[in-house]
Write a structure and sequence with these properties.
alpha+beta, Ribosomal Protein S8, Chain: A, domain 1, 5 strands
Amino acid sequence: MAIKRPTETSSAAQATDDALTFRAAVRDVKPLAQTAPAQGLDKPRVHVRRRAPRPAPAAELAESLPLIAADAADEHAVGGADALSFRRAGVREQVLRKLRRGLIPIEDELDLHGQSQSAARRTLAEFLLHSREAGRRCVRIVHGKGYRSGARGPILKIAVNVWLRHHAEVMAFTSARPIDGGTGAVYVLLRA
């Protein structure tokens, strides 16, 4: 049994037949009359995105974040191995879950190890201000677990937990994955 293959001449003839059939089908169609655009109608409004108010300078911001007294650390009660987590109203749980799993790319990092509380507060405020101005969305802050703090517990960890909750540019934060510092670091999601 021989298989018949289409030849170039038969496909050209088919295309010509299709074109003739189409022209016959639309022979009686008349173009629509062109109408002038209506006069006097308002132009559509252009929605302009309003910029967020410029954040306060780092020095003012640092002063607005409270220092944590040794006796107030009991009030916040966070241990070195405890995981931190926070999200503002309006931030979906799925976003926090992605942040916790490390699925949002980290664009910058700050290490606060060995700093005093006042120096860490100033450094953190400057870092968040510069990160926001640079358009960064997700950063990692290493605060440590406070194992060298003795009986006082993790002072910087408690302070960072409180400071990030008070900072207006922070939308959410959660303890990092073990490979990125575990409970000694946090992933921070900044306002877009």
